[in-house]
Protein backbone atom coordinates (compact mmCIF):
# COMPACT_ATOMS: atom_id res chain seq x y z
CA UNK A 1 0.00 0.00 0.00
CA UNK A 2 2.83 2.37 0.96
CA UNK A 3 4.25 1.86 -2.57
CA UNK A 4 1.21 3.38 -4.24
CA UNK A 5 0.75 6.16 -1.67
CA UNK A 6 4.36 7.35 -1.50
CA UNK A 7 4.49 8.85 -5.04
CA UNK A 8 1.22 10.75 -4.47
CA UNK A 9 2.49 12.21 -1.21
CA UNK A 10 5.89 13.04 -2.72
CA UNK A 11 4.14 14.84 -5.59
CA UNK A 12 2.02 16.82 -3.15
CA UNK A 13 5.11 17.86 -1.19
CA UNK A 14 6.94 19.08 -4.31
CA UNK A 15 3.85 20.94 -5.50
CA UNK A 16 3.31 22.66 -2.14
CA UNK A 17 6.96 23.60 -1.84
CA UNK A 18 6.97 25.15 -5.32
CA UNK A 19 3.74 27.03 -4.63
CA UNK A 20 3.85 28.39 -1.07
CA UNK A 21 1.11 30.67 0.23
CA UNK A 22 1.12 33.07 3.18
CA UNK A 23 -1.03 32.76 6.32
CA UNK A 24 -4.78 33.02 5.63
CA UNK A 25 -4.12 33.14 1.87
CA UNK A 26 -3.75 29.40 1.37
CA UNK A 27 -6.46 29.27 -1.32
CA UNK A 28 -4.64 27.17 -3.94
CA UNK A 29 -3.18 24.93 -1.23
CA UNK A 30 -6.69 24.35 0.11
CA UNK A 31 -7.96 23.42 -3.37
CA UNK A 32 -5.12 20.93 -3.84
CA UNK A 33 -5.79 19.32 -0.46
CA UNK A 34 -9.50 19.02 -1.20
CA UNK A 35 -8.73 17.36 -4.53
CA UNK A 36 -6.34 14.91 -2.86
CA UNK A 37 -8.92 14.02 -0.22
CA UNK A 38 -11.72 13.68 -2.78
CA UNK A 39 -9.59 11.39 -4.97
CA UNK A 40 -9.20 9.03 -2.02
CA UNK A 41 -12.90 9.31 -1.15
CA UNK A 42 -12.12 10.83 2.23
CA UNK A 43 -15.05 12.86 3.53
CA UNK A 44 -14.55 16.58 4.00
CA UNK A 45 -16.33 18.36 6.86
CA UNK A 46 -17.83 21.63 5.62
CA UNK A 47 -17.46 23.75 8.76
CA UNK A 48 -16.88 27.02 6.93
CA UNK A 49 -13.09 27.29 7.15
CA UNK A 50 -11.87 30.32 5.15
CA UNK A 51 -8.78 28.39 4.17
CA UNK A 52 -7.58 24.96 5.26
CA UNK A 53 -9.54 21.70 5.26
CA UNK A 54 -11.00 19.40 7.89
CA UNK A 55 -11.68 15.78 6.94
CA UNK A 56 -12.61 12.50 8.57
CA UNK A 57 -12.23 8.75 8.24
CA UNK A 58 -14.08 6.05 10.18
CA UNK A 59 -17.20 6.51 12.26
CA UNK A 60 -18.48 7.01 15.80
CA UNK A 61 -16.49 7.68 18.93
CA UNK A 62 -13.87 7.95 20.17
CA UNK A 63 -12.38 10.61 17.91
CA UNK A 64 -8.65 11.26 17.49
CA UNK A 65 -7.53 14.42 15.66
CA UNK A 66 -4.25 14.84 13.79
CA UNK A 67 -3.20 18.38 12.91
CA UNK A 68 -0.81 19.79 10.31
CA UNK A 69 -0.21 23.46 9.49
CA UNK A 70 -0.22 24.49 5.82
CA UNK A 71 1.05 28.10 5.56
CA UNK A 72 4.38 29.52 4.34
CA UNK A 73 6.52 32.55 5.26
CA UNK A 74 7.41 35.91 3.66
CA UNK A 75 10.98 34.77 2.94
CA UNK A 76 12.78 34.69 -0.42
CA UNK A 77 14.02 31.14 -0.92
CA UNK A 78 17.76 30.83 -1.42
CA UNK A 79 18.08 27.06 -1.63
CA UNK A 80 19.22 25.55 -4.91
CA UNK A 81 16.86 22.57 -4.83
CA UNK A 82 15.09 21.72 -8.09
CA UNK A 83 11.67 22.24 -6.56
CA UNK A 84 12.36 25.66 -5.07
CA UNK A 85 9.60 28.21 -4.58
CA UNK A 86 8.25 29.76 -7.77
CA UNK A 87 6.81 32.68 -5.82
CA UNK A 88 9.20 35.47 -5.12
CA UNK A 89 9.36 36.45 -1.47
CA UNK A 90 7.34 33.45 -0.23
CA UNK A 91 8.78 30.18 0.97
CA UNK A 92 7.96 27.08 2.98
CA UNK A 93 10.83 27.77 5.36
CA UNK A 94 9.23 26.13 8.38
CA UNK A 95 8.44 22.79 6.70
CA UNK A 96 4.66 23.15 6.83
CA UNK A 97 4.61 21.69 3.28
CA UNK A 98 6.22 18.64 4.87
CA UNK A 99 3.70 18.48 7.72
CA UNK A 100 0.82 18.75 5.25
CA UNK A 101 2.18 15.98 3.00
CA UNK A 102 2.88 13.73 5.97
CA UNK A 103 -0.67 14.20 7.23
CA UNK A 104 -2.09 13.48 3.76
CA UNK A 105 0.04 10.32 3.70
CA UNK A 106 -1.39 9.30 7.07
CA UNK A 107 -4.93 9.97 5.80
CA UNK A 108 -4.36 7.77 2.72
CA UNK A 109 -2.85 4.99 4.84
CA UNK A 110 -5.74 5.09 7.30
CA UNK A 111 -8.30 5.22 4.50
CA UNK A 112 -6.88 2.00 3.09
CA UNK A 113 -7.43 0.48 6.53
CA UNK A 114 -10.73 2.18 7.35
CA UNK A 115 -12.63 -1.02 8.25
CA UNK A 116 -10.19 -1.68 11.10
CA UNK A 117 -10.63 1.73 12.75
CA UNK A 118 -12.23 1.65 16.21
CA UNK A 119 -13.71 5.14 15.93
CA UNK A 120 -13.07 8.30 13.91
CA UNK A 121 -9.85 10.00 12.85
CA UNK A 122 -10.19 13.70 12.05
CA UNK A 123 -7.57 15.52 9.99
CA UNK A 124 -6.99 19.24 10.58
CA UNK A 125 -5.12 20.88 7.71
CA UNK A 126 -4.83 24.16 9.57
CA UNK A 127 -4.06 27.54 7.96
CA UNK A 128 -2.20 30.50 9.47
CA UNK A 129 0.04 28.96 12.11
CA UNK A 130 2.79 31.50 11.47
CA UNK A 131 0.62 34.42 12.57
CA UNK A 132 -0.98 32.35 15.34
CA UNK A 133 -4.55 32.81 14.09
CA UNK A 134 -5.33 29.46 12.43
CA UNK A 135 -5.85 27.23 15.46
CA UNK A 136 -8.22 29.75 17.06
CA UNK A 137 -10.21 29.97 13.81
CA UNK A 138 -10.46 26.17 13.60
CA UNK A 139 -11.59 25.89 17.23
CA UNK A 140 -14.17 28.61 16.62
CA UNK A 141 -15.77 26.75 13.70
CA UNK A 142 -15.98 23.53 15.71
CA UNK A 143 -12.98 21.54 14.50
CA UNK A 144 -12.56 20.03 17.98
CA UNK A 145 -16.21 19.09 18.54
CA UNK A 146 -16.31 15.51 19.76
CA UNK A 147 -12.52 15.11 19.72
CA UNK A 148 -11.09 13.02 22.60
CA UNK A 149 -7.36 13.42 21.92
CA UNK A 150 -5.23 15.44 19.49
CA UNK A 151 -1.69 15.07 18.17
CA UNK A 152 0.50 17.46 16.21
CA UNK A 153 3.96 17.17 14.70
CA UNK A 154 6.62 19.74 13.80
CA UNK A 155 9.79 18.82 11.99
CA UNK A 156 13.04 19.51 13.81
CA UNK A 157 16.06 20.24 11.59
CA UNK A 158 18.48 19.44 14.42
CA UNK A 159 17.34 15.83 14.63
CA UNK A 160 18.21 13.07 12.16
CA UNK A 161 15.32 11.56 10.24
CA UNK A 162 15.06 8.55 12.56
CA UNK A 163 14.80 10.65 15.73
CA UNK A 164 11.68 11.65 17.64
CA UNK A 165 11.52 14.10 20.56
CA UNK A 166 8.85 15.28 22.94
CA UNK A 167 8.34 15.98 26.62
CA UNK A 168 5.55 16.09 29.18
CA UNK A 169 4.56 19.57 30.42
CA UNK A 170 5.74 22.80 28.74
CA UNK A 171 7.01 22.28 25.19
CA UNK A 172 6.86 25.79 23.67
CA UNK A 173 6.58 29.31 25.12
CA UNK A 174 3.85 31.76 25.94
CA UNK A 175 4.55 34.31 23.19
CA UNK A 176 3.34 37.73 24.27
CA UNK A 177 3.91 41.13 22.70
CA UNK A 178 4.34 44.35 24.64
CA UNK A 179 4.19 48.04 23.83
CA UNK A 180 5.38 50.74 26.23
CA UNK A 181 4.74 54.47 25.93
CA UNK A 182 6.68 56.92 28.10
CA UNK A 183 5.26 60.43 28.13
CA UNK A 184 7.47 63.23 29.44
CA UNK A 185 7.68 66.92 28.62
CA UNK A 186 9.61 68.14 25.62
CA UNK A 187 12.33 70.74 26.08
CA UNK A 188 15.37 72.39 24.52
CA UNK A 189 18.28 69.94 24.68
CA UNK A 190 20.37 72.58 26.46
CA UNK A 191 17.74 73.05 29.20
CA UNK A 192 16.65 69.52 30.24
CA UNK A 193 15.59 70.87 33.65
CA UNK A 194 12.67 72.62 32.00
CA UNK A 195 11.21 69.33 30.69
CA UNK A 196 10.99 65.64 31.55
CA UNK A 197 13.20 63.55 29.32
CA UNK A 198 11.42 60.34 28.21
CA UNK A 199 14.59 58.99 26.55
CA UNK A 200 16.52 58.82 29.82
CA UNK A 201 13.48 57.33 31.56
CA UNK A 202 12.91 54.85 28.72
CA UNK A 203 16.55 53.75 28.93
CA UNK A 204 16.17 53.12 32.68
CA UNK A 205 13.06 51.06 32.01
CA UNK A 206 14.88 48.95 29.40
CA UNK A 207 17.66 48.19 31.87
CA UNK A 208 15.37 47.56 34.84
CA UNK A 209 13.25 45.11 32.81
CA UNK A 210 16.26 42.82 32.56
CA UNK A 211 16.20 42.33 36.33
CA UNK A 212 12.87 40.49 36.04
CA UNK A 213 14.53 37.28 34.86
CA UNK A 214 17.69 37.72 36.95
CA UNK A 215 16.26 39.02 40.27
CA UNK A 216 12.55 38.28 40.61
CA UNK A 217 12.04 34.87 38.92
CA UNK A 218 13.89 31.68 39.86
CA UNK A 219 16.84 30.85 37.64
CA UNK A 220 15.15 27.50 37.00
CA UNK A 221 12.23 29.18 35.22
CA UNK A 222 13.16 30.46 31.75
CA UNK A 223 12.09 34.05 31.10
CA UNK A 224 13.07 36.29 28.21
CA UNK A 225 12.04 39.93 27.94
CA UNK A 226 13.38 41.63 24.81
CA UNK A 227 12.82 45.24 23.84
CA UNK A 228 13.15 45.20 20.07
CA UNK A 229 12.06 48.70 19.14
CA UNK A 230 12.83 52.07 20.80
CA UNK A 231 11.62 55.22 19.09
CA UNK A 232 11.87 58.79 20.33
CA UNK A 233 12.84 62.20 19.08
CA UNK A 234 13.62 63.42 15.59
CA UNK A 235 16.55 65.78 15.86
CA UNK A 236 19.74 66.43 17.85
CA UNK A 237 18.84 69.46 19.93
CA UNK A 238 15.29 68.78 21.11
CA UNK A 239 14.24 66.55 24.00
CA UNK A 240 11.11 64.80 22.73
CA UNK A 241 7.85 64.38 24.59
CA UNK A 242 7.29 60.70 23.90
CA UNK A 243 9.21 57.45 23.60
CA UNK A 244 7.56 54.34 22.16
CA UNK A 245 8.91 50.84 22.70
CA UNK A 246 7.94 47.38 21.54
CA UNK A 247 9.12 43.93 22.48
CA UNK A 248 8.25 40.40 23.46
CA UNK A 249 8.00 38.33 26.64
CA UNK A 250 8.60 34.56 26.56
CA UNK A 251 7.71 32.30 29.48
CA UNK A 252 6.76 28.63 29.86
CA UNK A 253 4.00 28.43 32.48
CA UNK A 254 0.80 30.41 33.23
CA UNK A 255 2.08 31.34 36.73
CA UNK A 256 5.36 32.79 35.54
CA UNK A 257 3.60 34.54 32.69
CA UNK A 258 1.35 36.35 35.16
CA UNK A 259 4.20 37.17 37.53
CA UNK A 260 6.28 38.70 34.71
CA UNK A 261 3.31 40.74 33.53
CA UNK A 262 2.78 42.18 37.03
CA UNK A 263 6.46 42.93 37.58
CA UNK A 264 6.78 44.53 34.16
CA UNK A 265 3.82 46.81 34.89
CA UNK A 266 5.37 47.77 38.25
CA UNK A 267 8.71 48.65 36.72
CA UNK A 268 7.28 50.65 33.82
CA UNK A 269 4.81 52.66 35.87
CA UNK A 270 6.97 53.24 38.94
CA UNK A 271 10.18 54.22 37.19
CA UNK A 272 8.25 56.72 35.11
CA UNK A 273 6.37 58.00 38.17
CA UNK A 274 9.55 58.39 40.22
CA UNK A 275 10.96 60.62 37.51
CA UNK A 276 7.84 62.70 36.94
CA UNK A 277 6.69 61.06 33.72
CA UNK A 278 3.76 58.86 32.81
CA UNK A 279 4.15 55.46 31.25
CA UNK A 280 1.77 52.81 30.00
CA UNK A 281 2.38 49.15 29.34
CA UNK A 282 0.12 47.47 26.76
CA UNK A 283 0.24 43.67 26.83
CA UNK A 284 -1.02 41.50 23.93
CA UNK A 285 -1.51 37.82 24.68
CA UNK A 286 -0.03 35.57 22.00
CA UNK A 287 -0.40 31.82 21.88
CA UNK A 288 0.04 30.15 25.27
CA UNK A 289 2.71 27.53 25.84
CA UNK A 290 2.05 23.98 24.73
CA UNK A 291 1.46 21.90 27.84
CA UNK A 292 1.76 18.26 26.78
CA UNK A 293 -0.16 15.61 28.70
CA UNK A 294 2.30 13.06 30.19
CA UNK A 295 0.17 10.02 29.38
CA UNK A 296 -0.04 10.94 25.69
CA UNK A 297 3.66 11.81 25.48
CA UNK A 298 4.47 8.32 26.81
CA UNK A 299 2.08 6.89 24.27
CA UNK A 300 3.73 8.80 21.38
CA UNK A 301 7.20 7.80 22.56
CA UNK A 302 6.29 4.12 22.86
CA UNK A 303 4.88 3.98 19.36
CA UNK A 304 7.91 5.86 18.04
CA UNK A 305 10.18 3.20 19.53
CA UNK A 306 8.08 0.43 18.01
CA UNK A 307 8.39 2.16 14.64
CA UNK A 308 12.17 2.24 14.92
CA UNK A 309 12.62 5.88 15.91
CA UNK A 310 15.27 6.82 18.43
CA UNK A 311 13.49 8.78 21.17
CA UNK A 312 15.67 11.69 22.32
CA UNK A 313 15.37 14.30 25.08
CA UNK A 314 13.70 17.59 24.34
CA UNK A 315 14.38 20.89 26.07
CA UNK A 316 11.42 23.30 26.00
CA UNK A 317 11.83 26.08 23.44
CA UNK A 318 11.00 29.78 23.79
CA UNK A 319 9.44 29.90 20.33
CA UNK A 320 5.67 29.80 19.89
CA UNK A 321 3.28 27.27 18.32
CA UNK A 322 -0.46 27.79 18.07
CA UNK A 323 -1.16 24.05 18.53
CA UNK A 324 -1.16 25.11 22.22
CA UNK A 325 -4.73 26.41 21.81
CA UNK A 326 -6.04 22.92 21.00
CA UNK A 327 -4.54 21.51 24.18
CA UNK A 328 -6.58 23.98 26.22
CA UNK A 329 -9.69 22.12 25.06
CA UNK A 330 -8.58 18.54 24.43
CA UNK A 331 -5.72 16.44 25.88
CA UNK A 332 -2.92 15.31 23.64
CA UNK A 333 0.69 15.81 22.70
CA UNK A 334 2.89 17.75 20.33
CA UNK A 335 6.01 16.05 19.07
CA UNK A 336 9.06 16.64 16.88
CA UNK A 337 10.37 14.37 14.14
CA UNK A 338 13.80 14.92 12.63
CA UNK A 339 14.05 16.60 9.21
CA UNK A 340 17.85 16.85 9.26
CA UNK A 341 18.25 20.25 7.60
CA UNK A 342 21.66 21.93 7.71
CA UNK A 343 19.77 25.22 8.16
CA UNK A 344 17.40 26.34 10.90
CA UNK A 345 13.63 26.82 10.63
CA UNK A 346 12.80 30.15 8.91
CA UNK A 347 16.23 30.24 7.20
CA UNK A 348 16.09 31.09 3.46
CA UNK A 349 18.10 27.92 2.72
CA UNK A 350 16.04 25.63 4.96
CA UNK A 351 15.63 22.26 3.22
CA UNK A 352 14.19 19.06 4.67
CA UNK A 353 15.33 15.51 4.09
CA UNK A 354 12.36 14.08 2.15
CA UNK A 355 13.17 10.54 3.23
CA UNK A 356 11.40 11.32 6.47
CA UNK A 357 7.99 11.72 4.82
CA UNK A 358 6.61 8.17 4.54
CA UNK A 359 7.97 6.90 7.87
CA UNK A 360 6.40 9.96 9.50
CA UNK A 361 3.09 9.32 7.70
CA UNK A 362 3.13 5.71 8.92
CA UNK A 363 3.89 6.90 12.41
CA UNK A 364 1.01 9.41 12.51
CA UNK A 365 -1.38 6.82 11.06
CA UNK A 366 -0.40 4.41 13.84
CA UNK A 367 -0.74 7.13 16.48
CA UNK A 368 -4.32 7.68 15.38
CA UNK A 369 -5.25 4.03 14.98
CA UNK A 370 -3.74 2.95 18.31
CA UNK A 371 -4.92 6.16 20.00
CA UNK A 372 -8.52 5.09 19.29
CA UNK A 373 -7.87 1.70 20.89
CA UNK A 374 -6.25 3.39 23.89
CA UNK A 375 -9.23 5.73 24.31
CA UNK A 376 -11.71 2.87 24.06
CA UNK A 377 -10.08 1.24 27.10
CA UNK A 378 -11.34 3.97 29.43
ZN1 LIG B 1 7.51 28.79 11.64
ZN1 LIG C 1 6.34 25.87 11.90
Could you characterize the architecture of this molecule?
The chain is an alpha/beta fold and about 375 residues long. It folds into 2 domains: about 1-170 and about 290-375, 3-Layer(aba) Sandwich (Aminopeptidase); about 175-285, Alpha-Beta Plaits, CATH 3.30.70.360. The chain is built from 10 helices and 16 strands. The strands form 4 sheets. The chain has an 8-stranded mixed β-sheet, with helices on both faces. It has a 4-stranded antiparallel β-sheet with strand order 10-12-8-13. Strand 1 (about 45) and strand 2 form a beta hairpin. Helix 3 (about 95-110) packs across helix 10 (about 355-375) and helix 5 (about 200-210) packs antiparallel against helix 7. Bound molecules: zinc ion (2 copies).
Kindly provide the name of the CATH class of the largest domain: Alpha Beta
The helix/strand class is alpha/beta
- Could you state the order of secondary-structure elements as H and E? HHEEEHEHEEEEEHHEEEHEEHEHEH
Looking at CATH, the homologous superfamily of the largest domain is: Zn peptidases
Q: How far is the N terminus from the C terminus?
A: 32 Å
Q: Give the beta-strand count.
A: 16
Strand order of the largest sheet: 1-2-4-3-5-16-6-15
H/I helix tally: 10
Q: Give the total of domains.
A: 2
Describe the largest sheet. Answer: 8 strands, mixed
Mean pLDDT: 97
CATH fold annotation of the largest domain = Aminopeptidase
Amino acid sequence: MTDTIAPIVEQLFLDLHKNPELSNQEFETTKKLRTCLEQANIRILELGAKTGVIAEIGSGSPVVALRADIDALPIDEQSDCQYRSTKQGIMHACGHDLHTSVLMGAAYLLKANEQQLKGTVRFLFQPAEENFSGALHFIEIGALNGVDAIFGMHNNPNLTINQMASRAGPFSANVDRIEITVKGIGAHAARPESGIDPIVIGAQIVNAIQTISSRTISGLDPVVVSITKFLGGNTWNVIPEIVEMEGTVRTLTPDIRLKVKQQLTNIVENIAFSMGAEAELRWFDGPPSIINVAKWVDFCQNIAKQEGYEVVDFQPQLGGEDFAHYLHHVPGAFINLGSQSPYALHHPKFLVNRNMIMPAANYLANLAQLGLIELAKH
